[in-house]
């Protein structure tokens, strides 16, 4: 404890302890980011560097510690960054760090963090794997050395099966030795991309755009009400409205799905502002109104109960309209088909034809405006069947404009001071013809990617099944934390875990897939990354096009550590003149690829970001 006093010798440098002098005036660091203490600070007599122990040594003993403690190395712990010596100034007082951080008035902070599983939990599991592996080795050795000569073929078959099962068990266990957890810092993401500043007084977002894809195929097997609830949860997600777009792919080409989506877009005019006003979670209407417990918990607005009661009534009417669409479409089509038969009969009478002959009129499916539905009809015919129909693309909610605050006029709910804009919503049904393989869901994703590249061109894409809704409204922001953090440019996709509703509390049949999502996927994340499970995955558009991130040997230093790369540095085929060879003759699609790549880059606010974009470049751009 001699370090607490003014006496004694340091066991490292063998110098008497000295208490450093505190400066009366604190330097002003408001104009630049604070730096980590340099390696030379240990020579300036800081009292927090004093040793807490003292070692007794004889005077004639050679002191090795002297040479160990006076190293000039600049090693840091974890993500610590030691600035070069020239940033401290000539007087050696530490100064401020100018080489590492140049992102404004605040120091650079990471947006994500990797948290290892505690050793008290993972070490016994690893030991158990080793013990089981040793026992398995002894067992297989004994089985091989003791054949059954009376049934050699059965013995041989059992040995092959046991060795194969042992090999598959090893492959299943090895990825589980290093599971990890990940943490996101949404406050840092907001400060970095959406914080108001003199150059951005309104706090316009600098986040890249996200296109959300929903796939459905048959309204008879996938109820339109479930799909509509999924769409509503997407439209109400907590993300900048002008940076979000939702696309639904109807592989069945059914009018029922089309009109159900039109009803959902109409109901979103009430549901989305209600979620923003009262911070609703989850933002799936069916799941929210089915929650058990006190709905007023953590709600501070006095009009919440009144608003919730009115919206619950509107949602009940919305469900009645959705569930009544099949009968409504059938009655409408029967009426229009009867009218066409009357027209045909009148024409036959005027032309003098035999009216006793059967009237041949196509049993078409009619839209509300009195025109034929171009997709699949209830009575299939040529050009109107599930595998033979034209392509359909309808923008149901137009791209949002400037912020638009609500009012009390002509509204059931008071949305004053609430942004009532809605994200862009597009219905799409790709063309299908006999003799051409449509590749099922992969073909639907291809059509969604190509059409969205022309309409919104979001640098990132999130695909969902029609029965998988967004439970956490900030999930898109959390995914963006990984993409926009240091090293995020190398991430191809982010797989979100799945949770299921309507399962018995005991989950006796393991329908929650807890072992897979919480065990296997987290373990794979500790190695290279989880696998893609088909839904709930956020892709980088540029990676989905087949391009790879730039290699380290392709990065050319041109006087700046954050030199922006050209698009050809990623792939030689990214030249606009060569893109038609891979992506067809669409000029708009070819021109959108370099733009999507540039918008997906993280901000160049750290020396580790070798190919970023300037801060604020997306604030003046509207993705839609």
UniProtKB/TrEMBL annotation:
<dbReference type="Pfam" id="PF03552">
    <property type="entry name" value="Cellulose_synt"/>
</dbReference>
<feature type="transmembrane region" description="Helical">
    <location>
        <begin position="125"/>
        <end position="144"/>
    </location>
</feature>
<feature type="binding site">
    <location>
        <position position="215"/>
    </location>
    <ligand>
        <name>UDP-alpha-D-glucose</name>
    </ligand>
</feature>
<feature type="binding site">
    <location>
        <position position="222"/>
    </location>
    <ligand>
        <name>UDP-alpha-D-glucose</name>
    </ligand>
</feature>
<dbReference type="GO" id="GO:0012505">
    <property type="term" value="C:endomembrane system"/>
</dbReference>
<feature type="binding site">
    <location>
        <position position="440"/>
    </location>
    <ligand>
        <name>UDP-alpha-D-glucose</name>
    </ligand>
</feature>
<dbReference type="InterPro" id="IPR029044">
    <property type="entry name" value="Nucleotide-diphossugar_trans"/>
</dbReference>
<dbReference type="GO" id="GO:0030244">
    <property type="term" value="P:cellulose biosynthetic process"/>
</dbReference>
<feature type="region of interest" description="Disordered">
    <location>
        <begin position="28"/>
        <end position="59"/>
    </location>
</feature>
<dbReference type="GO" id="GO:0016020">
    <property type="term" value="C:membrane"/>
</dbReference>
<feature type="binding site">
    <location>
        <position position="251"/>
    </location>
    <ligand>
        <name>UDP-alpha-D-glucose</name>
    </ligand>
</feature>
<feature type="transmembrane region" description="Helical">
    <location>
        <begin position="151"/>
        <end position="171"/>
    </location>
</feature>
<feature type="compositionally biased region" description="Polar residues">
    <location>
        <begin position="47"/>
        <end position="59"/>
    </location>
</feature>
<feature type="binding site">
    <location>
        <position position="465"/>
    </location>
    <ligand>
        <name>Mn(2+)</name>
    </ligand>
</feature>
<feature type="binding site">
    <location>
        <position position="221"/>
    </location>
    <ligand>
        <name>UDP-alpha-D-glucose</name>
    </ligand>
</feature>
<keyword id="KW-0961">Cell wall biogenesis/degradation</keyword>
<keyword id="KW-0472">Membrane</keyword>
<keyword id="KW-1133">Transmembrane helix</keyword>
<protein>
    <submittedName>
        <fullName>Cellulose synthase-like protein D4</fullName>
    </submittedName>
</protein>
<dbReference type="GO" id="GO:0071555">
    <property type="term" value="P:cell wall organization"/>
</dbReference>
<feature type="binding site">
    <location>
        <position position="441"/>
    </location>
    <ligand>
        <name>Mn(2+)</name>
    </ligand>
</feature>
<dbReference type="InterPro" id="IPR005150">
    <property type="entry name" value="Cellulose_synth"/>
</dbReference>
<keyword id="KW-0808">Transferase</keyword>
<keyword id="KW-0812">Transmembrane</keyword>
<dbReference type="GO" id="GO:0016760">
    <property type="term" value="F:cellulose synthase (UDP-forming) activity"/>
</dbReference>
<keyword id="KW-0328">Glycosyltransferase</keyword>
